[in-house]
Design goal:
Layout: E1 8-11, E2 17-22, E3 29-31, H1 39-55, H2 68-77, H3 84-102, H4 112-124, H5 129-148, H6 175-184, H7 190-198, H8 203-207, E4 214-215, E5 220-223, E6 226-229, E7 235-238, E8 247-250, H9 256-265, H10 286-300, H11 309-320, H12 325-332, H13 337-344, H14 348-369, H15 381-392
Antiparallel strand pairs: 1-2, 2-3, 4-5, 5-8, 6-7
Helix pairs in contact: 2-3, 3-5, 6-7, 6-10, 7-11, 12-13
Length: about 400
């Protein structure tokens, strides 16, 4: 019998076959993680291992023995430049949704089938689809790192679309509704409603504004920071998440008088004074402000609108002016085109406006060329109707 040049195969007392080869790192004999019913299958496995070793794609099977619990916790700790709020988010998702189902497994034991079953169990347990999508993205990022570090051969997260969060269509407030809310809300928050809408700002960005960030003469608001709320309730001032988030946004002239009045009556003094503060002199928190917001929207008859929908409405209004993709990205503070593209989708009102303008162009052209027919004393309604039918046949 010809002796194998790589590895060896032996028949066990059970009748099954065991394949072994020399570990390229330690020189010790390493057995396959399973036995084989047929000798041919063992030979095939050895041939594959030989190809991987010679081709440099061999993965040490022991590397994947680290538990998901250990690797995931270390992965979060080692992420560079994560904001404190993002760290808390990752830790919460990992603790609540990854550890219970996968924490006791080693990386090498987590297969595509394991991931599918884990995701299905979360959905069956009533975990919301957005949360499941966020958790899946987190797990996918962790397993991609494990594959990059050569702890596993490839990521087991292979469910197409599982990381995409369903995005229910949010309502868009009209200009009239925005002003109705600003009239109904407590006076110290009127400018907050208007600036958030017409400058397309986020809540955290408005709470971080200082007097020096608003130039009423130049009609510019500068976004240089954002306020986030930690799980322990502490407010944290930090730079924007991306370079695009640091931006200068033009303010519509129409709301300048409201901003000027607000700065006089409600903002803190000094160039570093906060623009938006509550009656007791502290920065408003979203949870507390929501009660004020809900009362105002109820009075204005615009119930069901969230405060963040004001930014969404402002983005939609900006897109309706004909702003280019790059202009929208700059105004919104987005580094990628994905979000800006959403607002470039034509609205029904904008589409009707375009149709009306096209109609005017068509009528002007026909009139100029003498082809526009008019009903006069030489043309009866029946003749016109007959002409229309003839032209449509």
């Amino acid at each position: 019998m010809k002796r194998r040049s790589f590895g060896s195969i032996r028949r066990l007392p059970s009748g099954r076959y065991q394949a072994r080869y020399e570990d390229p790192l330690t020189g010790q004999r390493r057995a396959a993680n399973t036995t084989f019913e047929r000798k041919h299958d063992a030979e095939t496995w050895l041939s594959r291992a030989e190809t991987e070793i010679s081709g440099g794609s061999w993965i040490n099977p022991d590397a994947g023995l680290v538990s998901m619990a250990e690797f995931g916790a270390r992965w979060i700790d080692e992420r560079p430049n994560l904001r404190a709020g993002t760290v808390e988010l990752y830790q919460g998702l990992f603790r609540r949704h990854v550890l219970p189902g996968l924490g006791n497994l080693s990386l090498g034991e987590i297969t595509p089938a394991t991931v599918r079953s884990w995701r299905r169990s979360l959905l069956d347990a009533g975990v919301g689809e957005p949360t499941v999508a966020r958790t899946y993205r987190l797990l996918s990022a962790m397993m991609a790192t494990a594959a990059s570090d050569e702890l596993i051969r490839r990521s087991p997260c292979q469910i197409k679309g599982a990381g995409r969060e369903p995005a229910p269509e949010r309502p868009v407030a009209t200009v009239e509704q925005v002003y109705a809310i600003s009239d109904a809300i407590e006076p110290r928050y009127r400018a907050l409603v208007l600036l958030t809408t017409f400058a397309s700002l986020r809540w955290g960005e408005t709470m971080a504004l200082r007097r020096r960030h608003i130039d009423l003469d130049a009609r510019i608001v500068s976004i240089e920071a954002s306020v986030g709320e930690r799980l322990n309730g502490r407010l944290e001032l930090s730079p924007p998440k991306t370079a695009a988030g640091r931006r200068r946004v033009a303010i519509p002239e129409a709301i300048i008088p409201d901003l000027r009045d607000h700065l006089v009556r409600y903002a803190e003094p000094g160039s570093d004074g906060r623009v938006f503060i509550g009656p007791s002199g502290v920065t408003p928190r979203r949870t507390n402000f929501n009660r004020i917001w809900q009362r105002a929207t109820a009075r204005a008859g615009v119930e069901g609108l969230h405060f963040h929908d004001l930014r969404h409405s402002g983005n939609t209004l900006a897109a309706a002016t004909g702003a280019s993709l790059r202009e929208l990205m700059a105004r919104m503070g987005h580094a990628s085109v994905r979000a800006a593209l959403i607002y470039q989708h034509a609205t029904a009102d904008r589409d009707r406006h375009i149709a009306d303008q096209l109609s005017l162009l068509a009528e002007e052209a026909r009139a100029a060329s003498g082809t526009l027919r008019a009903r006069d004393e030489h043309e009866t309604p029946a003749e016109v109707e007959g002409t229309s039918r003839e032209g449509s046949d």
